[in-house]
Amino acid sequence: MGVKSYFNTWASRDNYDEVMEYLAVAETQHAPRFEFDQAPEQLRELIAVAETPRGEERSKWLNEYAERSWSVPDGEAEVLLAEDHLNAIRYVNRYLRKANAKLKQDGYLVCSFDTAQKRRAQIYSKYPRFFAGIVYFFDFLWHRVCPKLALTRRFYYLCTKKVRKVFPRPEILGRLYYCGFEVVSEQYIHDRYCVISQKKRLPHDEPHSYGPLVRLRRYGKGGKLFNVFKFRTMYAYSEYLQTYIYENNDLDVGGKFSDDYRVTEWGRFLRKTWLDELPMFINLVKGQMKLVGVRPLSQQYFNLYSEDLQQLRIKTKPGLLPPFYVDMPETLDEIQESERRYLEAYLKHPFRTDWIYFWKIIANILFRGKRSK
Prior knowledge:
It is built from 17 helices and eight strands. The protein has helices at about 5-10, 15-25, 40-50, 55-70, 90-100, 115-125, 130-145, 155-160, 170-180, 240-250, 265-270, 280-285, 300, 305-315, 325, 330-350, 350-365, and strands at about 75-80, 105-115, 180-190, 190-200, 215-220, 225-230, 290, 320.
């Protein structure tokens, strides 16, 4: 590439409309679309108006609809429209909990927000590429990091007259599930991401943090749930999307989700190098796990297993080094058979089985380059 061509590349700007057209397809690739023939009449009318071209009349209708829907007594609303886009709401979870209380069971919440991808598109279409990267970095720190850290949160709201927080799509979806909703439709309406969700349960009451260390509920010996410690590799609140991802994504080779958009770029690096699993040594020291053993499974994954293998699994502690790295199975059935062979052998000869599996796993990882995605 010549100097002139190189300069033109870095001095160019992205085409905003083209990027948004791409995102409208890419970000909704594994998203469900609502069956509107089953929807209440007022929800169909709301979406029909929202999809009309932007204008003063459209904005007035939507604002009046939102105000009217929130005036209904608690537990009686059938369809709620968020009064503002979620980026502009300071306490998002508190707002979603309020919506949960306002709706009747199976009632619908319609909300919208600007995704992190859209924010990036705005910056890269406004500035030349060599400068846009710098602007995007500081914008990321200010609008995505500062509102979430206890040390900077108050300062952020003090300096920001109008809240403009930026959310990755998985975080908003996860917050909805955390607050008792299930997503039934996602799509871009114009250039804003619109989500339709249904109230299915009361909000979760366990606290959530943005810290680098996460606690994941997993099945252990005796079928008891315990907290597995790992470094965060997914966007915040992604753990609440496991069932949603399973329903809309296929299982990839090795039993993982294909195109799992919950995983961050940094998280992919941590997973590839196993650095994300270092905190699991805490579980090892606490006696909740052992060095070699089957993977600790979430409730959603555990329910995919056959009943007899579920009972076999809970007879022993899960391990840091799973038999997966000995057999490298590709399908869920193959994974179950691999674990069954290990567990049956372990229950007969515990020490000998773990000793043999340990050295096979080490050999496959170090000398044959076996990796899990």
